[in-house]
Please model this.
Amino acid sequence: MLHGLEEMPRKELEYRGGVFTEMDVDAVLDRRPQVALVDELAHTNIPGSRNTKSYPR
Model:
């Protein structure tokens, strides 16, 4: 169903000796899309991320 849609690479962040990935919000916003489909469960982001939570407050 997603065939042909652009997929943005995830941002890698180091935290407590591990490497984790988060949605790269800045990269998505830089593309200035009319619509963005986000399939990501609401969670607390890694410290140092752009936002504390992955959902709007």
